[in-house]
Amino acid sequence: MVNGDINVTFWGVRGSRPVPGIHTIRFGGNTSCVQIQIGDRLFIFDAGSGIVDLGQYLLKKGKKISGEIFISHTHWDHIQGFPFFGPAFVKDNNFILYGQGKMNQTFANLMRGQMEYTHFPVSLEQMGAAIDFREVDSGHDIDLGDGIIVKTIHNNHPGGSISYRLEYGGKSCCYVTDNEHYDDLDLNICNFISGTDLVIIDTNYTDEEYLGTNGSFPRVGWGHSTWQEAIKLVKAAGLKKLALYHHDPFHTDSDMESIEQQARERYPDCFAAREGMSITL
Ligand SMILES: [Zn+2]
Ligand SMILES: [Zn+2]
To which H or E segment does residue 50 belong? Predict the structure, then answer.
């Protein structure tokens, strides 16, 4: 049995590609990775470049590490940190990876692909830890023991993506990326996140960027949403806390502060996720 709160820590909050540099110091430049810790149970959502620092943090504890890793989809910004995830190189550690196979390829093969010899010198099988793969699809309820359940739903994204809802002890957290809104409210996603304590959601663009009304080209059909659309969704779904997530790599710290301030005027219990930030539910 575990005893404890749901602790959520952001290790990578960026979409598309890592953006180190002087313009992303306050929000962080690593791609998608969120840790959820419940007592000794470790859960990781996505393995973008943020998982590398999470790995170093876990290794410093000097204990055997086991955990479950949930991959939304295998676009690079969600898996590119895995070949550098230190704990996966340690014998006796063990990880279960959940994700979805596509285009006649199993999820395991999609994860192996980025570690083929032409891309990376170490194969997935050579990493050292015991790594087990589980296929997930929309509508699955995964019983993780200790009263922890993870639910899944499909997103609207090129090639597909899966959202996850983790529930434990009457609390819940939803991880919804990458996902593009529709013209009408997406009732499936709305029901999926309904009443959750924290939703971490793809708000890659502003409405103006998405529609191309800011003088640039539109991003319709690119598979991402806006902070304005996320607020419509969470108001309909009756949530507690909203985390803006999967920040556009071109958004600087001051852009993000401005977006966060505007979002809070419409929905006060809202913040733009920052690397290193932790929240207890
Ligand atoms: Zn992405
Ligand atoms: Zn994607």
Answer: helix 50-60
